[in-house]
Amino acid sequence: MTVEVCPVAELPPGHVKIVYAGLVGVGVYNCAGKLYAIEDRCSHDDGPLAEGDWEPELCVAICPRHGARFDITTGSALTLPAFEPVETFPVRIEDGWVKVDVPTA
User: Fold this and answer.
1) How far apart are CA 94 and CA 31, in angstroms?
2) Domains (ranges, CATH) in the chain?
3) 75-79 contacts: CB < 8 A, separation 24 or more?
């Protein structure tokens, strides 16, 4: 499923948008001009992830519940209590829009 996130101008460097593909929440991040999308679900306790703080200069998302840190570029868990990665999704720009491809179940 392709999800239209927003016009490119609405996602400048240092910003994140949360979108939904059915029941799957996706955080779409602009890290220094490169776009990345990860599942909006902490692998530690299934809580929201993209709603938390993040470090744009490091491309690291921080879970708002327990502080687990994730590499936005790969989905890898960087710190405990999380140890499993979160899913990543391809992002592209098409006709001036940011789009994310999320596989359907």
Assistant:
1) 19
2) 2-101 (2.102.10.10)
3) 75/38, 75/39, 77/43, 77/44
